[in-house]
Design goal:
The chain is α/β, with parallel strands linked by helices. It contains 13 helices and 14 strands.
Length: 402
C-alpha cells in the first residue's frame, strides 16, 4: 500500500497577532505567542485574581498535562506507552545542564583523565556547566570545531564521531546548531556514545517543536529544552528528559513538591524522605507556574497538531527561491544533506567577507525585517506565520546593502 503524503500546511499568520508591516524571521531568538497562547495567558491571569477554591492537586495538574504533551512531541515512551514521569520542569537550559554536571561525578566508570566532548561555537549554557566538574574530577574538554570549508555538516559530524572514544565520559550536542542551522546526526552519535559507555546529553532548544525529534531512536541520557523559542511558550519555563541513569541521582534543590504524597497538604509535616519516581526529583521549586504552565500547554498542543515535519516542509518551500538570489550576492549556506545538512527553520547565511553582519542587521531592522547576527552569519529563522512578503523584504534589503 503506497504511503500517504502529509499535505503541506497553509500559512498560519492569522493565528498570530504580529503587525502587518513587521517581517519577523527571528523565532530562534524568541517566538511570538499565538493567539491561542495569548488567550490562555489572559484567562490564567484572571483566575489568579481570586484564588478561592484552589485545591492541592491544582499545584500539580498543569505540569502533568504539559509532561504528557512534551512526551508526545519527542516520542518519550516506555514499552510503547508515554512515560511523562521522565520529564522535569526546569527554568532554563543552564538548570538542566547543572543537574547533569552534578550527577556526572557519580556516573559508573567515571575517572580522572576522561573527556567531555562538545561542538565548537556552542551556546554558553552548554559550555559553562562543565568547568567545576572538570576541576573536581580531573576531566578535560574536547571541542570539535566547525570545518572551514563548505559543505561543513558531513565533515563536522564525522569529526565529532571520531572524537567520541573509550575515554569519553559525556557528549553534549544539539540537533541543530544554534547559530549555523547545521544538523547533527543524533542517531549515529547516540549509537557511538552507547558503544563507548558515554552519556549523551542534548540541548534541544533550537530544534524541538519545529524539527522532528525521536527520543526512542536517539536514546539520549538527557534532553533539555527552553520553552520560549520553538516550543513557542513563555520565558523562564522549560522541560527536560532524564533517562534511567538519573533515577537515583541528586537534585539541585530539595523541593517539598518533589516528594512522595506532596499533594496531601494536611500531612506535609510528616516529612517524606522518598522522592516521586524517575525525573520528578529534578523539578524546579514552585514548578506549578499557574500563569505560564497553561500557556506552555496550549503551545505544545498546537505544535503537536501542526507537526514539526510539516513546519520543516513549510519553511523549506517558503525560503527556497531566496537562496539562489542570495548566493549570487556572494552569500553561502550549508546545502541540504539529510541529517548532516541544514535545517529549514533555522538557517545560517554566511555573508561575503566585506560585509559587516551587525551593520546589515541594523539595515534590515530599519525596514522592519528581524533576523539575528551571529559571528559571520545572519541567522534566519522562519515559521508558519511567515509569508512570501517577509522573504521578499529580506531579499530586497540584502540586495541593496550587498
Amino acid at each position: 500500500m503506497p504511503a500517504v503524503e502529509t499535505p503541506l500546511l497553509p500559512c498560519q499568520k492569522d493565528q498570530f497577532s504580529l503587525p502587518e508591516r513587521i517581517h519577523y524571521l527571528n523565532c530562534a531568538t524568541r517566538a511570538p505567542f499565538s493567539k491561542a497562547v495569548e488567550q490562555v495567558g489572559h484567562a490564567a491571569l484572571s483566575q489568579q485574581v481570586n484564588p478561592f477554591g484552589l485545591r492541592p492537586d491544582d499545584f500539580f495538574s498543569g505540569a502533568i498535562r504539559v509532561r504528557e504533551l512534551f512526551s508526545t512531541l519527542i516520542n518519550n515512551r516506555n514499552a510503547g506507552t508515554l512515560d511523562p514521569d521522565r520529564i522535569a520542569i526546569v527554568p532554563s537550559v543552564s538548570y538542566g545542564m547543572a543537574v547533569v554536571a552534578r550527577n556526572l561525578t557519580n556516573k559508573p566508570g567515571i575517572q580522572a583523565g576522561q573527556k567531555i566532548v562538545l561542538i565548537g561555537d556552542e551556546f554558553p549554557s552548554d559550555v559553562y556547566a562543565w568547568s567545576r566538574v572538570c576541576t573536581e574530577r580531573g576531566l578535560t574538554i574536547t571541542t570539535v570545531g566547525m570545518p572551514d570549508e563548505f559543505p561543513k555538516g558531513s565533515i563536522w559530524n564525522e569529526r565529532l564521531l571520531d572524537a567520541i572514544d573509550s575515554n569519553t565520559a559525556l557528549v553534549v550536542v544539539p540537533p541543530v546548531h544554534w547559530m549555523y542551522g547545521i544538523c547533527f546526526d543524533l542517531e549515529a552519535i547516540g549509537q557511538r556514545a552507547r558503544e563507548v559507555g558515554a552519556w549523551l546529553v542534548i540541548d534541544g532548544t533550537q530544534a524541538i517543536g519545529a524539527f522532528p525529534f525521536d527520543l526512542a531512536r536517539i536514546q539520549p541520557d538527557a534532553v533539555v529544552c527552553a520553552g520560549y523559542k520553538w516550543l513557542m511558550g513563555p520565558y523562564s519555563l522549560g522541560l527536560a528528559y532524564f533517562g534511567p541513569a538519573f533515577d537515583e541521582g541528586i537534585p539541585l534543590e530539595e523541593s517539598w513538591m518533589n516528594r512522595l504524597d506532596s499533594n496531601q497538604f494536611h500531612r506535609l509535616m510528616d516529612y517524606q524522605p522518598i522522592y516521586r519516581p524517575k525525573a520528578y526529583r529534578y523539578n524546579v521549586g514552585e514548578h506549578s507556574h499557574f500563569l505560564q504552565m497553561p500557556m506552555l500547554e496550549a503551545s505544545l498542543a498546537q505544535l503537536i497538531d501542526w507537526q514539526p515535519s510539516r513546519i520543516q516542509a513549510y519553511t523549506s518551500k517558503l525560503m527556497a527561491d531566496a537562496w539562489p538570489v542570495l548566493e549570487k550576492l556572494g552569500c553561502q549556506l550549508e546545502p541540504e544533506n539529510g541529517s548532516r545538512g541544514r535545517s529549514h527553520h533555522l538557517i545560517g547565511l554566511w555573508l561575503p567577507d566585506h560585509a559587516d553582519p551587525m551593520a546589515i542587521q541594523q539595515a534590515l531592522q530599519k525596514e522592519n525585517v528581524s533576523v539575528s547576527a551571529r559571528a559571520r552569519v545572519l541567522r534566519i529563522a522562519p515559521h508558519l506565520y511567515n509569508t512570501p512578503d517577509d522573504v521578499d523584504a529580506l531579499v530586497r534589503v540584502l540586495t541593496q546593502v550587498l
